[in-house]
């Protein structure tokens, strides 16, 4: 097989405890009027205030927009754009969880190119560079600081929608694990499970037919040698740190490894893409109003089981990255052990076992299956082809907690 790899990454990626102190100099290099996109809780945090003071010390004017709302409704995007436009922002900084960083991406896009978010839904719809973006995550989860996609909730659509373009990649990402120390166990669990799902789906996603234009034909190009490297790296770090960080938020080593793994997972799926677990979470999340990370994590063991016969070698490799003892096992047994280990890890940090536990009712299953099939940018990445019938079976298994029925 011809070796092929590509990465879509920020120009600068800085990782390490205390590295938020590098933020002011990066901002000063890019602009003199900085719009900071965050949420209400962070806007009143003393560590956040210290970062803002550091930026102002270099003579950069700052406008804080604290109106980001979880799951990112379109209304808060419009408010952020209005704030940035009246201020005359020439650089945008997202500080917070994935919603804050995604909001910063879309606000920078609309400040540059105008229109409304719906004008850019899909892939390659952004016509050119956006205002310089800096991303500073405060959770170990979405990996949005290193990805070319932003996902928002549109009131005119039943499910969340994505804007995917290399132009949405931040110029600079600063990943400081100290900013995650205050994350409560529930947020640590949900965001960390989201990150592990990103890595698992990126590593097992479909490998596309190689063309000389593949990077221009797809934002997410499918499985490749470079995304595989980051995916396995992420799986290893997250699997060894997630439970420890959940149990003890003061465990500095676990916090560092978890954030490093989450960022690596972002590098993996930001190039390769995600698949069925994310496609199903969109309608599940819309129906139940549960956190994105919880929804994708619930689905992941079922999706792995569904895909097992089409990605057996990859799942066997996942067992190794998870640190499982698999000597003497067949490839299929190693794949099965990996699926069991992922399910057990998620259970140990309080992730529900079924989509019924999330609040999906039996009569909603046809809606979930139909709307999940509408997420074509995700469905096309799944290693096992999906149609409405097979999607219906997958969703039913996740509702009833029956992984065994998915074994092909």
UniProtKB/TrEMBL annotation:
Keywords: NAD, Oxidoreductase
Pfam families xrefs: ADH_Fe_C, Fe-ADH
Gene3D superfamilies recorded: 3.40.50.1970, Dehydroquinate synthase-like - alpha domain (1.20.1090.10)
CDD domains, alphabetized: Fe-ADH-like
Domain Fe-containing alcohol dehydrogenase-like C-terminal: start-end pairs: 188-398
Keyword Chloroplast recorded: no
Keyword Oxidoreductase: yes
Required co-factors: Fe cation
A GO MF label: metal ion binding
Residues spanning the signal sequence: none
Catalysed reaction equations from the record: a primary alcohol + NAD(+) = an aldehyde + NADH + H(+)
Span of domain Alcohol dehydrogenase iron-type/glycerol dehydrogenase GldA: 10-177
InterPro entries xref list: ADH_Fe/GldA, ADH_Fe_C, ADH_Fe_CS, Alcohol_dehydrogenase_Fe
Family stated for the protein in its record: Belongs to the iron-containing alcohol dehydrogenase family.
Name of this chain's protein: Iron-containing alcohol dehydrogenase
Classification of source organism: Bacteria, Pseudomonadati, Pseudomonadota, Alphaproteobacteria, Hyphomicrobiales
């Amino acid at each position: 097989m011809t070796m092929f790899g590509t990465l879509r990454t920020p120009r600068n990626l800085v990782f390490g405890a205390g590295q938020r102190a590098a933020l002011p100099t990066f901002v000063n290099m890019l602009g003199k009027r900085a719009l900071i996109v965050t949420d209400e809780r962070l806007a009143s945090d003393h560590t956040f205030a210290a970062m803002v003071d550091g930026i102002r010390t270099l003579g950069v004017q700052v406008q804080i927009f604290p109106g980001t709302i979880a799951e990112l409704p379109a209304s808060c995007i419009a408010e952020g754009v209005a704030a940035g436009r009246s201020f005359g922002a020439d650089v945008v900084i997202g500080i917070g969880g994935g919603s804050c960083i995604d909001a910063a991406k879309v606000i920078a896009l609309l400040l540059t190119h105008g229109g409304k978010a719906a004008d850019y839904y899909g892939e390659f719809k952004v016509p050119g560079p956006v205002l310089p973006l800096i991303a500073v995550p405060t959770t170990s989860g979405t990996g949005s600081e290193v990805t070319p996609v932003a996902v928002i909730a549109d009131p005119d659509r039943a499910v969340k929608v994505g804007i995917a373009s290399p132009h949405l990649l931040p110029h600079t990402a600063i990943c400081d694990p100290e900013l995650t120390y205050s994350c409560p166990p529930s947020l640590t669990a949900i965001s960390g499970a989201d990150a592990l799902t990103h890595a698992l789906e990126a590593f097992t996603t479909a490998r596309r037919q190689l063309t000389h234009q593949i990077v221009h034909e797809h934002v997410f190009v499918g499985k490749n040698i470079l995304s595989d490297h980051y995916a396995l790296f992420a799986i290893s770090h997250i699997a060894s740190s997630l439970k420890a960080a959940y149990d003890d938020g003061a465990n500095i080593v676990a916090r560092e490894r978890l954030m490093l793994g989450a960022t690596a997972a972002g590098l993996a799926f930001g190039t390769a893409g995600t698949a069925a677990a994310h496609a199903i979470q969109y309608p599940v999340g819309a129906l139940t109003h549960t956190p994105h990370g919880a929804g994708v994590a619930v689905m992941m063991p079922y999706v792995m089981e569904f895909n097992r016969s089409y990605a057996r070698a990859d799942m066997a490799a996942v067992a190794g990255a998870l640190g499982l003892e698999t000597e003497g096992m067949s490839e299929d047994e190693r794949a099965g052990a990996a699926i069991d280990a992922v399910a057990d890890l998620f259970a140990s940090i309080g992730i529900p076992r079924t989509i019924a536990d999330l609040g999906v009712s039996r009569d909603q299953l046809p809606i979930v299956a139909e709307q999940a099939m509408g997420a074509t940018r995700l469905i096309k990445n799944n290693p096992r082809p999906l149609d409405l019938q097979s999607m219906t079976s997958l969703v039913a298994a996740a509702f009833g907690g029956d992984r065994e029925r998915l074994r092909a």
